[in-house]
TrEMBL record:
Reported function: Reduces FMN, organic nitro compounds and disulfide DTNB. Involved in maintenance of the cellular redox state and the disulfide stress response.
Name of the protein in its database record: NADPH-dependent oxidoreductase
Keyword Ribonucleoprotein part of the UniProt annotation: no
Gene3D superfamilies: NADH Oxidase
Keyword Oxidoreductase: yes
Domain of life: Bacteria
Keyword terms of this UniProt record: Flavoprotein, FMN, Oxidoreductase
Length: 59
């Protein structure tokens, strides 16, 4: 199998989150960057969900 295809088929993304809260300025900066990111078909569609309930964050 092609090495690039093998890499793509086996790629995983693991995330480890902290309890650190983001400032309003950081959130605005991140949202602005996400809105400016290139997308297919130039749609620029996005969804952002802010979760603050510790119980929901566990899932």
């Amino acid at each position: 199998m092609n090495e690039v295809i093998k890499l793509l088929n086996h790629h995983r993304s693991l995330r480890k989150f902290t309890d650190e809260e983001l400032s309003e300025e950081t959130i605005r900066t991140l949202v602005g960057a996400a809105q400016s990111a290139s997308t297919s078909s130039y749609v620029q569609a996005y969804s952002i969900m802010g979760v603050t309930d510790p119980g929901r964050k566990k899932h």
